[in-house]
Amino acid sequence: MAAFTFKSALDEVVQVYKADGGGDVVPQYGMTPMLAKQVENLAPADIFLSADSNWMNYLQDHGLIRADSRVDLLTADLVLVTRSDNATAPTAVPISRDYPLQKMIGDGRLAMCDPADHPAGRLGRAGLERLGLWQEVVDRIAIAESPPAAVVLVARGEAPVAVVFSTDATGVSGVKVAGVFPKESHPPIVFPAAILRDSHGAETARFFAFLTSQKAAAVFERFGYRPLGGSP
Predict the structure, then answer these.
(1) Domains of the chain and any CATH numbers
(2) In terms of DSSP bridges, do strands 71-75 and 2-3 run parallel, antiparallel, or are they unpaired?
(3) Residue 232 pLDDT grade (very low, low, confident, very high; cuts 50, 70, 90)
(4) Is 162 left (phi over 0), alpha (psi -120 to 50) or beta?
(5) pTM of the complete model
(6) Please, where are the H alpha helices in the chain?
(7) Residue 231: partners with Cβ closer than 8 Å, 6 or more residues away
(8) Inter-CA distances, 144 with 72, 113, 117, 164, 230, Å
(9) Each residue of 64-79: pLDDT tens digit?
(10) 204-211 vs 7-19: helix axis angle to the nearest 10?
């Protein structure tokens, strides 16, 4: 199980794994909160790749992962994206209290995941609050089910701006990063992975080792992730 935000990169990791002699791996994608609840309800799965530490902590606190397998796999940045043809928007500048977010949104809405429970939404709200920008947009939010879905809203012109992970905009035609949240403006972005307690798949240990290998890290890096470690 893996959050939607990892789909493009993880699909390629699986392809490389199979080309390297690995067995069958079938990723299941969804919103991190939904997947965590499925694990809690004992849905069949072997590995969980979470879009934040909170939901992994939740599963660990409930004894649903093999704690000794848990690894902080990846990190990325939190950013604002807009259409690439938006000539009036800045390009990849640090976001500060005087960032022209309200002007960029105009009569539209800010696309983001649910700030109540989704990792990207929760981090986005934390960053906007810390920078004094949340009150400008709190009544102008368009909830997206995942960060990639928020990017699609921007690419289609259905929302002028979105809060997403930087990796969600990597390689997406028609969008650009307009602003980067300072790391101190929000909790750390950590994407952890772990083997689930009830995993019985023969390929689990082998694929998990590959997931934390340098071969997999090279794939993730091509999609804009920064690996946090793993086995050689």
Answers:
(1) 2-75+189-227 (3.40.190.10), 78-185 (3.40.190.10)
(2) unpaired
(3) very low
(4) beta
(5) 0.93
(6) 7-19, 32-40, 53-61, 101-105, 119-130, 134-137, 147-155, 166-169, 204-211, 214-222
(7) 209, 212, 213
(8) 26, 5, 12, 10, 32
(9) 999 999 999 999 999 9
(10) 120
